[in-house]
């Protein structure tokens, strides 16, 4: 056995078990762990995209993951434009994916 390999039970730096949480995403329940961001919960559930661009409806999810690009925005508990990669999920959060069509141009 390599010196770097040892049983998980003997790993002194393994993280403690996290509490489970559930959020609602577009009406569907998604399970996650305490400490995860909303994006982390969504990615963990296998969902890679949850927003569509205004111009052509292209799918978007996490791009930068550090709060810079705003590709991951969602509505959380009635508050729009929340960056999913920056907002920690809380048990019972109501998340709604966003799609804002471009405004009509009138002259
Ligand atoms: S992924 Fe870029 S702001 Fe969230």
Give structural notes.
The chain has one helix at 38-44; strands spanning 20-25, 28-33, 51-52, 59-60, 73-76, 79-83, 94-97. By secondary structure, it is mainly beta. The chain has one domain: Ubiquitin-like (UB roll), CATH 3.10.20.440. The strands form 2 sheets. Strands 2-1-7-5-6 form a 5-stranded mixed sheet, covered by helices on one side. Strands 3-4 form a two-stranded antiparallel ribbon. A hairpin with a 6-residue loop joins strand 3 and strand 4 (59-60). The protein is elongated and about 70 Å long. The model has no long low-confidence stretch (mean pLDDT 91). The structure holds FE2/S2 (inorganic) cluster. FE2/S2 (inorganic) cluster is lined by residues 62-65, 67-72, 83, 85.
Fourth CATH level, the homologous superfamily: 2Fe-2S iron-sulphur cluster binding domain, sarcosine oxidase, alpha subunit, N-terminal domain
Task: Count structural domains.
Answer: 1
The assigned CATH architecture is Roll
What is the strand tally? 7
Give the distinct bound molecules: FE2/S2 (inorganic) cluster
- Number of alpha- plus pi-helical segments: 1
Task: Return residue spans where pLDDT drops below 50 for at least 5 consecutive residues.
Answer: none
The SSE string, one letter per element, is EEHEEEEE
SS content category:
mainly beta
Write down the CATH topology: Ubiquitin-like (UB roll)
The gyration radius over C-alpha positions equals: 18 Å
What amount of the residues lies in strands? Answer: 25-35%
How do the strands line up in the largest sheet?
A: 2-1-7-5-6
Mean pLDDT: 91
**CATH class descriptor name:** Alpha Beta
Largest sheet: 5 strands, mixed
């Amino acid at each position: 056995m390599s010196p770097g390999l040892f049983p998980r039970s003997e790993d002194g730096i393994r993280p403690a078990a996290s509490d489970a949480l559930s959020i609602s995403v577009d009406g569907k329940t998604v399970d996650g762990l305490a400490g995860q961001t909303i994006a982390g919960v969504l990615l963990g559930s296998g969902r890679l995209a949850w927003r569509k661009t205004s111009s052509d409806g292209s799918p978007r999810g996490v791009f930068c993951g550090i709060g810079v690009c705003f590709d991951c925005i969602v509505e959380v508990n009635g508050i729009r434009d929340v960056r999913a990669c920056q907002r920690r999920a809380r048990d019972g959060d109501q998340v709604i994916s966003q799609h804002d069509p471009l405004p009509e141009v009138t002259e």
